[in-house]
Amino acid sequence: MLSLKDIKKDYVVGDSTVSALKGVSIDFRENEFVSILGPSGCGKTTLLNIIGGLDRYTSGDLNINGKSTKDFKDCDWDSYRNHSIGFVFQSYNLIPHQTVLSNVELALTLSGVSKSERRERAVKALKQVGLGDQLHKKPNQMSGGQMQRVAIARALVNEPDILLADEPTGALDTETSVQIMELLKSISKDKLIIMVTHNPELAMKYSSRIIKLLDGKVIDDSDPLDKNVVEPIKKPEKEPTKADKKAAKKERKKLKTSMNFLTALSLSRNNLMTKKARTLLTSFAGSIGIIGIALILSISNGVQLYIDQVQSDTLSSYPLQITKTTASIGEIMNTMAKNHEDSANHDKDKVYSQNAMGEMINTLMEETKVNNLEKFKKYLDDNSDLKDLTSDVQYTYATTLNVFTESDSGVMQVNPSTLLEDMGYMSSTQMEAMSMSGSMGGMGTDVWSEMIDNEELIDKQYDVIAGRLPEKYNEVVLVVDKNNEINDYVLYSLGLLDPSSLNGIVRRAMAGEDISVDSEQHVYTYDELLDLKFKVVPTPDFYKKKDGVWEDMTGDESYMKKAVANGTEISVVGILRPDEDASSASISGAIGYRHDLMTYLIDEVDNSEIVKEQIANPDIDVFTGLKFKTDENAADTDSSSETVSDSTADTESKADKTADSSDTDKKAGLVAGDSSMEIPEGMTEEQYKALMEQSGASNTGELADMGMNAMGSMDMSAIQGGDMSSLTETQKKYIASLSDEQMELMKQMLKEQSDTNADQLANSGKYSTSNYDNNMKTLGYSVVEDPDSINIYPVDFASKEKIIDIIDDYNDSVGEEDKIEYTDYVGLMMSSITSIINAISYVLIAFVAISLVVSSIMIGIITYISVLERTKEIGILRSIGASKRDISRVFNAETVIVGFVAGALGIIISYLLTIPINMIIAHLTDVPIRASIPVSAAVVLIAISVCLTLIAGLFPSRVAAKKDPVIALRTE
């Protein structure tokens, strides 16, 4: 089983060599109790360590089951100690921070035994030595005899073939010594026990064989293995096949010991728990760098979040805008500057004129471009990447949002607002320019603005203080400021204050008149504001057809009252207040409406009668009945022909209406009841008589007189449209007296008159000063697929750059005529703020990282101290089969624990410190910066702490792995 062949062991001490064993040869039986006796220094323990694989022989050979160990590697010796050897030491060599059960289980852990089996076998071994009720005690809670029993249980738990006992009773009293020896003797029935002792009495009493050593040599063997016994001759072994080699390799791999990292963590955790104060102080020291970096990151993150919010809020007010007609201001300025430099090529002996105005006009014409927004809109709609880069893509149209309020005194236009014009502050042209400025994110005159179609962004920027957000096209919200106040300009514009009190006030003030303005602070309840109602009227409803042309009726108060009454009702359903932390707001007006209100209005305009008529007659101006002037008909116009304005054409067209046909006159007389009129063409005499009889013979003359008088001033278009509200009582009485046939005849007559008038105007030789496009724009006609402008709201500056790349990609894919020019209102803003903040953060982190590195080095030193403190534990682990790698893993696990605790402690302290930091920031500044550590950053910092401490502990763990287990076991 076990055979020593001429074993020699030399130690080099300085310049000299000491021989501990001098050619020892011993053969052992499988089952016997061998005691090795001898004086101190004779080589007993050295021999025991060589047998146990803790020490290496200098020469000779150790055969195990007939196999030489000359070629054993470290892993082979580890496996040998774990599976074949059990050690029982004089000083017990239990790991103090582990329980009794854990000490015994440790060898099984290295063998890869499952947890349940491990516990079962350890409990069985402890019961075998009489400690079944002491499982969870620590070694320092037990007597010497009990600790030695634990050591024996640990030695037996892996069912080794050989039990090595080094002075097992040396530290015990006589009674306990006897108990231990009895236990060992009972074990020797099944195993080989080799005991080293100084007590010859115990050896004689309990051993079956006594070997005496002196000066490194065997001087006596009481029962040597009989060499004269002829052992059976073994047949020569066959050359192992590939399958045999594979099976042997698999078996060696199976027997290979390995401590998993969880076991290493458990060992190190228990060790650290015995030194809680030092562990906490070490972890705190290691956390200082983490705290510094975490605080820098928290403030940087707070600033970055604020910047992101500012970016999001700012870009929600200043989008990338693409209008149908645009001009690059930068290109215009560059071109003008270049032209000016090129023109300065004359002598300076005289003063020369500079063609600045001509250059400006020419450059403006050259740089002004018409964008094909219909094609570009389709490109944007088909781009899947745009959604993640934008808060919203808003399409605006030329359709005017006409909003009115109704009151007992009449109707008032709310949008577009005319308040400043009525005050005499600016002209209508300036008002239009201001409205355009408002649509581009500037200060406009209109208090109604379209909401961004991003409810999440609106929720971030506003608090709903009453009601709710709009859900339908006919619902709007009222926006107050952060103090729950509404500008009085808004109140006047919405009709909550009487705007008529401001009419002409600017002109009167400039003329020196005494004026007074309502300065009282008015208070409104939420319910009062939520009860506000408005009416939206499509622009085509402002026109009424008269005599074949469409007349603007905005000056007719009664007509406008009816038009507004028939408009779409708009309700205020919510009141919004900007969030305190919002740096900007996406709703530029006081009333925010949904985009689908505009699409609804576009449909209403597109389906109106006047728009349909204009589309059906693209060559005729529906407002004047005149033809539009084109390049073709302009050549046919002689010098006497004039192009007339709408008002002139209207006056002249009325004068031309006297040229009615005689047949129309006959029908008019017939409707009026004039029996003297000739029978109209196309009507038989019987039809004429029947019609006259229906009017009644008794009052024919009276009706004839009344009819002719009534028709002379009657609004014929009112009859044609079925609207009798504008007729006088006499006219209404007359209309009521007509039969159905006469009414139909009258409508036919009116249509003929209208057609005749329109035909006369169209062929009068005069032309409209307007054109088709202007008329359609006046009527508010739009096509959803072809917007007037596109506003792209990027999420942040980085997204804006990507959107610009998308636009550039589009421009590269289309022809020159379809390339898009856009306006970037925040292009000159300092988008590099984020980069500056990051750069500052990185510099600060670099400085603080020095402390992190220093603390890591300190942890490395502490780990080295731990190696020195746990040297004996290293020897114990090696004696039960732990490899060098396992020892490294134990101390690496310790540094991982310390690093994790340091990182976690640093993050916790940093989180706590952000509370007073935020209080200080809030006290010193009005900027809503909230220092906060991102979760991802916290995880990364803990990981960095673990990695740095792990790196710092590599050297100490390497030192631990290289320690000689024999020397380690001697360490106290």
How are the SSEs placed, and which strands pair?
Elements: E1 2-13, E2 16-28, E3 32-37, H1 44-51, E4 59-64, E5 67-68, H2 74-84, E6 85-88, H3 100-111, H4 115-128, H5 144-156, E7 162-166, H6 174-187, E8 192-196, H7 200-206, E9 209-214, E10 217-221, H8 242-255, H9 261-273, H10 276-317, E11 320-323, E12 325-327, H11 329-343, H12 356-367, E13 368-370, H13 373-381, H14 386-389, E14 390-396, E15 403-407, E16 410-415, H15 419-423, H16 428-439, E17 448-450, H17 455-461, E18 462-467, E19 475-479, H18 488-494, H19 505-510, H20 526-530, E20 533-536, E21 543-546, E22 549-552, H21 557-565, E23 568-578, E24 591-593, H22 595-606, H23 609-616, E25 627-628, H24 631-634, E26 643-644, H25 646-655, H26 662-672, H27 685-694, H28 700-712, H29 716-721, H30 729-737, H31 740-762, E27 767-768, H32 772-778, E28 789-794, H33 797-813, E29 823-824, H34 833-869, H35 871-879, H36 884-924, H37 935-952, H38 954-961, H39 965-970
Helix pairs in contact: 3-4, 3-5, 4-5, 9-36, 10-34, 10-36, 10-37, 11-12, 26-28, 26-31, 34-36, 34-37, 34-38, 36-37, 36-38
